């Protein structure tokens, strides 16, 4: 179902104590904010603890940053959907850093999407072109491939994050115009009811710009590691976005 949403992607940052402090701060501040779903995706080693921390209030959800698609087996270092589903509600799938550094293909992303849905997790499916000049068809293919064999009924359980690779971690966010052009095209594939996020160098200035756009939410990397910066973004979203 389409809803306002702000997702924190902590990537491979934080030590245990920073992570717990940050999660507590976010939970406490979000407790007083309505109208936006907030998700924290910490490194997997902290996921269980962070899920417990945020559960105490109930307004923030936890998500994994990745998973493998098999249920169990000799896959050293990997984590299965069965391990995540009892702890977290969401899992990020197909992030550009996974595609780039770990050679994740569209086909593997699709297997992960199917596995997540099978086990009751909501995948946050990341798509995005590598360069500014790449054709929109590249992103369309990524999304269509990610959704292969996914029934339309399941679309209510997915979230899509449009994250142009050239905007991620570069301090060069995409423009609202470019983002809307792409997300409108992606909506032609998934329909009106799927929650669509934008991600890529989001800080509060971008949040203010994007809150007036057709994007439903934000996937925030760097700025999510600072409680006050992240909470500012959540507040902007809660105040400026309402689905009537
Ligand atoms: P960024 O990361 O906000 O640091 O650009 C976004 C992401 O990778 O999801």
Describe the 3D structure.
It is a single chain. With 244 residues, the chain is of the alpha/beta class. Helices cover 40% and strands 16% of the residues. It is built from 9 helices and 8 strands. It has helices at residues 16-30, 44-55, 81-85, 96-101, 106-118, 136-146, 176-190, 204-210, 227-240; strands spanning 5-9, 37-41, 60-64, 90-93, 122-127, 159-162, 195-199, 217-220. It has an 8-stranded parallel β-barrel with strand order 1-2-3-4-5-6-7-8, surrounded by 6 helices. The protein starts with a strand and ends with a helix. The structure holds 2-phosphoglycolic acid. 2-phosphoglycolic acid is lined by residues 9, 163, 168-169, 199-202, 219-222. 2-phosphoglycolic acid (PGA) binds next to β8.
């Amino acid at each position: 179902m389409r809803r306002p949403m702000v997702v924190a992607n902590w990537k491979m940052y934080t030590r245990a104590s920073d992570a717990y402090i940050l999660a507590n701060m976010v939970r406490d501040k979000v407790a007083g904010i309505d109208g936006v779903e907030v998700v924290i995706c910490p490194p997997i080693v902290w996921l269980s603890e962070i899920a417990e921390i945020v559960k105490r209030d109930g307004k923030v959800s936890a998500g994994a940053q990745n998973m493998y698609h098999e249920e169990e087996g000799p896959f050293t270092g990997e984590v299965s959907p069965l391990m995540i589903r009892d702890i977290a509600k969401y899992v990020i799938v197909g992030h550009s850093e996974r595609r780039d550094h770990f050679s994740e293909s569209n086909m593997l992303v699709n297997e992960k999407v199917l596995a997540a849905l099978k086990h009751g997790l909501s995948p946050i499916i990341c798509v995005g072109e590598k360069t500014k000049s790449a054709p929109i068809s590249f992103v369309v293919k990524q999304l269509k491939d990610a959704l292969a064999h996914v029934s339309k009924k399941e679309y209510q359980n997915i979230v899509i994050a449009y994250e142009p690779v050239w905007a991620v971690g570069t301090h060069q966010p995409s423009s609202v115009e470019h983002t809307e052009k792409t997300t409108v095209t992606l909506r032609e594939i998934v329909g009106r009811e799927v929650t669509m996020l934008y991600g890529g160098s989001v800080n509060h200035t971008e949040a203010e710009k994007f809150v007036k756009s057709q994007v439903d939410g934000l996937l925030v990397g760097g700025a999510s590691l600072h409680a006050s910066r992240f909470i500012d973004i959540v507040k902007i979203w809660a105040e400026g976005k309402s689905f009537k």
